[in-house]
Design brief:
- By secondary structure, the chain is α/β, with parallel strands linked by helices.
- It has a single domain, classed as 3-Layer(aba) Sandwich (Aminopeptidase), CATH 3.40.630.
- It is built from seven helices and nine strands.
- The strands form two sheets. A seven-stranded mixed beta sheet has the order 2-3-1-4-9-5-8, sandwiched between helices. A two-stranded antiparallel sheet has the order 6-7.
- Helix 2 packs across helix 7 and helix 4 packs across helix 7.
- The radius of gyration is 16 Å and the shape is globular.
- The N and C termini lie far apart (45 Å).
Length: 222
């Protein structure tokens, strides 16, 4: 981090390490490019989270304690999706189709015992959606962050905020494969690194500057 940026308010931007046999993770590729840049007068601090149920959340919460961000935006790779997906909700369940990088495969376990069934992102997700679309970037609101490590991180983050830092803005975004990954997954959509990079800049700017969300239809019928 440069001395010039060190005294500025920050945004904590997270991606994930490799998982499921992939040689790269699109989420880390994207967020790492923005590390120590400035967006909306905030410095970006990018960190990689381990693709492990328990340790991912511990690393994230330690980073929040260290950096005191104004915004936390977590980014995950969602192979098969064709758009930037802004996650609306995280649910209190771990149900892993495959084991994580530590060999753990929780099935039908709560993320946090005796905690609420779900938490909603406190970001202006509809405003973020509109700003992406106006920037000609394919995007949609997603109503499921899955039941793997991404949802685990989002739920744990929002639970922490509800208990300890209600002023902290936070949410989760899923991005498609990069083209270099999609060629190994027949029929899978992809999005260029440049487009994802631009999308993250738009999302961060809107999350930091929007005074309130807008009420527009962005739901699904199934």
């Amino acid at each position: 981090m440069t001395k010039k940026n060190a005294s500025m308010p920050c945004v904590l931007l997270t991606g994930f390490n490799l998982f499921a046999g992939e040689t790269i993770n699109a989420s880390w590729q994207a967020v790492n490019l923005l590390d120590d840049t400035l967006i909306a007068k905030h410095r970006i601090v990018a960190i990689a989270l381990p693709c492990e149920f328990n340790r991912s959340l511990a690393v994230l919460l330690n980073a929040i304690e260290q950096h005191h961000p104004a915004l936390v935006l977590c980014v995950g790779q969602a192979g098969g999706r064709s758009e930037i997906n802004i996650e609306r909700v995280a649910i209190n369940i771990d149900d892993a189709r495959i084991a994580d990088n530590a060999g753990k495969q929780p099935i039908d376990c709560p993320v946090i015992a005796d905690a609420p069934a779900a938490y909603f992102s406190n970001l202006p997700i509809k405003r973020m959606l509109i700003d992406l679309q106006q920037s000609h970037i394919p995007a949609a609101i997603s109503n499921s962050a899955g039941t793997y490590v991404c949802n685990h991180v989002m739920y744990g983050l929002l639970h922490h905020i509800a208990l300890h830092e209600p002023q902290l803005k936070a949410g989760f975004v899923h991005i498609p494969y990069l083209p270099s990954q999609a060629v190994h997954h027949s029929g899978s959509a992809s999005m260029s690194e440049e487009t994802v990079n631009n999308a993250l800049k738009v999302l961060i700017t809107t999350a930091l500057t929007a005074k309130q969300d807008v009420k527009v239809a962005a739901g699904t019928t199934h």
